[in-house]
């Protein structure tokens, strides 16, 4: 996928408390020299020390105010903005720049920032569609909450709770009852997040699939399962009315405690995220670097 939409306004978000004032100022000058308007997220504007009157927007507003979004920081900052793009219902492409070691999502290094932006403006940037997940929680049979996520929805026990038991169905067909510390429902992009730590498989982001990964299952035969991305997953915690505490979290950014008879349904979101790829690094090169495959694992 190549970028073809004319870029006029560029939204800029930096990780809070990031020492990036000089980089942000240089980026603003670079964009303005090319006739582009730089719109800073409010906290990012404070980091950059922008003068009064310069265009600013909140994190929630920014996706609707720009044609391209540049995120400087780590994967957590990137995920937060990706979810906001989805909620805004816009097709803004997102470019993630990592200030430290490479992230799985912020895979562009600082020296690659301007070459990457040049390719976007020239219409030659490679943009990868990343499947997102849409979740709806039903309470007493009625919609209670809706979320859009890039990585995962996680149902897990409270800190002092026993093992959680959950009923899992796919397209209204019973799959299993999971007895575990929790369950991860992840996209291929999310396969390298919590899913990876829980022993789930790494899934190439081009694959059209949803992952179901138990967290520390009580029965070793409860294994991770990949299902078609067209499926609808339904997860219902089974509570005995005791001291069970079950929580659901969305990309680690939001969450709440579930009640008895709640149901969490998950399916592929209507829109994918449009992620600008590094011009010099493939997905497998990223895996080798992050996971130290074939290198020094110390």
What this model shows, in words?
With 298 residues, this protein is an alpha/beta fold. The protein folds into 2 domains: 9-130 and 272-291, Probable inorganic polyphosphate/atp-NAD kinase, domain 1 (Rossmann fold, 3-Layer(aba) Sandwich); 133-268, Tumour Suppressor Smad4, CATH 2.60.200. 20% of the residues lie in helices and 37% in strands. It is built from 7 helices and 20 strands. Strands 1, 2, 3, 4, 5, 6, 7 and 20 form an 8-stranded mixed beta sheet that branches. A 6-stranded antiparallel beta sheet has the order 9-8-19-16-11-12. Helix 4 (75-88) links the parallel strand 4 (68-73) and strand 5 (93-98). The longest helix is centred in the first third of the chain and has 14 residues, at 75-88. The chain is elongated and about 65 Å long. The two termini are 37 Å apart. The relative contact order is 0.15.
Quick description:
With 298 residues, this protein is an alpha/beta fold. It has helices at 21-33, 42-48, 62-65, 75-88, 113-122, 194-197, 283-291, and strands at residues 9-14, 37-41, 56-57, 68-73, 93-98, 108-109, 127-130, 133-139, 142-149, 152-157, 164-170, 173-180, 182-186, 209-215, 225-228, 233-238, 246-250, 254-258, 263-268, 273-276.
Strand and helix map with partners:
Layout: E1 9-14, H1 21-33, E2 37-41, H2 42-48, E3 56-57, H3 62-65, E4 68-73, H4 75-88, E5 93-98, E6 108-109, H5 113-122, E7 127-130, E8 133-139, E9 142-149, E10 152-157, E11 164-170, E12 173-180, E13 182-186, H6 194-197, E14 209-215, E15 225-228, E16 233-238, E17 246-250, E18 254-258, E19 263-268, E20 273-276, H7 283-291
Parallel strand pairs: 1-2, 1-4, 2-3, 4-5, 5-6, 5-20
Antiparallel strand pairs: 7-20, 8-9, 8-19, 10-13, 10-17, 11-12, 11-16, 13-14, 14-15, 16-19, 17-18
């Amino acid at each position: 996928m190549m970028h073809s939409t004319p870029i006029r306004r560029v939204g800029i978000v930096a990780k809070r408390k990031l020492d990036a004032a000089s980089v942000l100022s240089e980026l603003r000058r670079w964009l303005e020299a090319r006739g582009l308007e730089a719109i800073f997220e409010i906290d990012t504007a404070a980091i950059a020390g922008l003068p009064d009157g310069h265009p600013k927007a909140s994190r929630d507003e920014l996706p609707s105010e720009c044609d391209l979004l540049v995120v400087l920081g780590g994967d957590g900052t990137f995920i937060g903005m990706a979810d906001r793009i989805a909620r805004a219902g816009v097709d803004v492409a997102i470019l993630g720049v990592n200030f430290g070691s490479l992230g799985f999502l912020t895979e562009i290094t600082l020296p690659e920032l301007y070459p990457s932006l040049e390719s976007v403006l020239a219409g030659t940037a490679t943009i990868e569609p990343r499947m997102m997940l849409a979740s709806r929680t039903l309470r007493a049979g009625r919609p209670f909450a809706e979320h859009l996520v890039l990585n995962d929805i996680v149902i897990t026990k409270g800190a002092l709770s026993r093992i959680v038991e959950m009923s899992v169905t796919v397209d209204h067909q019973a799959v299993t009852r999971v007895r575990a510390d929790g369950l991860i429902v992840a996209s291929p992009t999310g396969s390298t997040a919590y899913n990876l730590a829980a022993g789930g498989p790494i899934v190439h982001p081009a694959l059209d699939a949803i992952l179901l990964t138990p967290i520390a299952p009580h029965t070793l035969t409860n294994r991770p399962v990949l299902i078609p991305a067209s499926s609808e997953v339904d997860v219902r915690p089974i509570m005995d009315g005791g001291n069970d505490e079950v929580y659901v979290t969305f990309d680690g950014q939001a969450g709440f405690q579930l009640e008895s008879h709640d149901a969490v349904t998950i399916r592929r979101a209507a829109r994918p995220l449009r992620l600008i790829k590094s011009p010099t690094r493939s997905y497998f090169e990223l895996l080798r670097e992050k996971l130290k495959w074939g290198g020094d694992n110390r």
